[in-house]
Amino acid sequence: MSRPWRALRALRLRLFGPAKELVGTDQFGNKYYRVPKHETRAGQIIPERRFVEAINRQAYQYEMGDFPTEWEAWIRKKRKDPPTIEEILKNENYKEEMKQKIKDVSEKDKLLQAKEYKEGLVAERVHTHVKGHASAPYYGKKEPSQDPTSAASSFQPGSWMPPGSGSSHNK
Hints:
Elements: H1 3-16, E1 21-25, E2 31-35, E3 38-39, E4 45-46, E5 49-53, H2 69-75, H3 85-119
Antiparallel strand pairs: 1-2, 2-5, 3-4
């Protein structure tokens, strides 16, 4: 590289910082970049930055799983090196195997429960619909209204007494 180009490159680095480096892409097409640690014109040291240029540009279009967990860990600096495609595919296969095993165990457990219910070893679940709170005196029943029935035009302060009180004044 000639001397003027080196001078222009050094000036660009001092003014704008280093260019972003493409580190890799994932199976969805998202591109992952890093900007290496560098020093500004004022001498301030800027740490390494990692970021992604996503296929879905708008934030409202992001969904869980848009970024593989390996790449997300790299972006958050939880891992030093970016993931390889082989590593991502291996982890995806492992996740699928685990999902299938969970499904198989769940089905096996349902069959075992049904067998135990049929044999009378376990009582079947009772599905109840409970209305109200268990500590209420009228639990599960329609509660009678204890509210005064007077209207605003006929209301007399102190005239309403709760049901069951024998006297009109406390002694």
